[in-house]
Amino acid sequence: MGGIGDLAGWIAGSKCTVALTGAGVSTASGLPDFRGPRGIWRTLDPSRFEVGALREDPDWVWRMFVEHFMPDADLRPNPAHLALAELESMGKLCAVLTQNVDGLHQMAGSRNVVELHGSTREAVCTSCGARVDMRSAAAQVRSTGRAPRCPECGGLLRPDVVFFGEPLPRDALLRAIGYATASDVFLAVGTSLTVAPANSLPLRAKLNGARLAIINGEPTEMDDEADLVIRGRVEEVLPELVREVRRLLAE
Prior knowledge:
The chain is of the alpha/beta class. The protein has 2 domains: about 1-30 and about 75-115 and about 165-250, Rossmann fold (3-Layer(aba) Sandwich), CATH 3.40.50; about 35-70 and about 120-160, SIR2/SIRT2 'Small Domain' (2-Layer Sandwich), CATH 3.30.1600. It contains 9 helices and 9 strands. It has helices at about 5-10, 50-55, 60-70, 80-90, 105-110, 135-145, 170-180, 200-205, 235-250; strands at about 15-20, 95-100, 115, 120-125, 130-135, 155-160, 185-190, 210-215, 230. A 6-stranded parallel sheet has the order 3-2-1-7-8-9, sandwiched between helices. Strands 5-4-6 form a 3-stranded antiparallel sheet. Helix 5 links the parallel strand 2 (about 95-100) and strand 3. The protein is elongated, with a radius of gyration of 19 Å. The mean pLDDT is about 90.
């Protein structure tokens, strides 16, 4: 059992376990990660997704966004999402703080999810603020190759996500900081921990007394700071972890 057994013991005895998740949690659902061997930023220049690029070349940004973030196939939660939802239902996970925008945690049944980087569920008008279902906006892009327009005022729509160079939504960031500070066990799952300010949350938790565990397929920027590092596929590690937590709680 090794590290999984140790971590399960921490979670079983914790009052507030919090998980920070990244793109590695959703790769088993068919979405690519960003910085892995086949990550999105291996083929696309991240600077093209800065907020200014949306103003300068909205058609290109939207085409790339739909191609890489809005696959035609219906996405489904994988065992990693389901395991975190089960931990919450067992009363052993206070919150999921996610850098992902795919909504798969909610689809898996997680109820307390803080979306740090926004969501692909909706597009927002840059002129009047109207909100549009993303499926409708993506359909426009696929049929025309052009950036979609607001049905209310004709203004440019943008994905309701955080672009490079934009601040995180204030309410989401404050909630995430609150959970990190209150946690006694903090899990960093499927994230390289390279993107600020989300990567400050594990250290904030640790400075406030939490045990920090990192579960990821590749080394991260903060492995040396962690109390425990489990290297493996998160969709395999998390279900095993939940089974062990359940066993300990039943004793």
